[in-house]
Amino acid sequence: MEYDDETSEISEVLALPNIFQVADSVADCIIEKTLEQKRKRQEEEREIITDHKVFNIEKGQIYKDRKILKTAVGFFAMINNFQFKTKRSEPREYMVTCADDNCNWFLRASKLKSTSTFKVIAITTIQYQVKVQEKGDFTINILERTCSCRRFQLDEIPCSHAIAVFAKRGLRAYDYVADYYKIATMKATYERTVHPLPNEREWTIPESIERIVWPPKSRKPARRPRKKRLRSKGEPKVVLKFTRCGKVGHN
């Protein structure tokens, strides 16, 4: 707002924002946030299709594997009385089109990333079921610290299925690690004084252990010596890919 010094007359009035425009902007922002949260919730709750009897194929569906997807496409074409032709059928991509050249219908599906999809389902307040894509279902008991994959109770470190449950419930996975993995336990182990051994000439060796036990004699096997080491249980297999196309099976 400005004033003329001589006549003190108002020469310009600044326009105030319209209250209805402000309300519309706030409403649009709230609606956008709500739709975004709904979309994320729907993505998290999407079911993995494990049956080929699908009466409607839609964008965004997730199938358990490529075999079920191909069977579902054939079933969908049969009940809708149309034919299709396969344009691409690879381990990571599957694409079909309508057999009629004048039809624009097509379907393209690609394999998800190497990381498996985890879906946590609560059975009770302490027992949960985790559905892992292409690997099956696992049951976790957070009170007994067990999992049906047995890695949780064998290693006494939360497995990937248990970590998914902890993430859903907002718990710390570190609290479910065995105490002997923690720094406080290691410090307590060496808290007392560790006395050094005396000179070897001062050792008192009982007669029962004076006899030296040698390893048993073994015979070298007739077959060719192994060049590749045996992998540990659960160790992933290294797959080499061609640098140009990024595919496996050739060099």
Automatic annotation (TrEMBL):
Residues 217-231 have a biased composition (Basic residues). It comes from the Eukaryota. Keywords: Metal-binding, Zinc, Zinc-finger. This is SWIM-type domain-containing protein. Residues 128-170 form the SWIM-type domain. The keyword Zinc applies. It comes from Cannabis sativa (Hemp). GO terms for molecular function: zinc ion binding. The keyword Zinc applies. Residues 216-235 are annotated as: Disordered. InterPro entries: Transposase_MuDR, Znf_PMZ, Znf_SWIM. It holds the Pfam family SWIM.
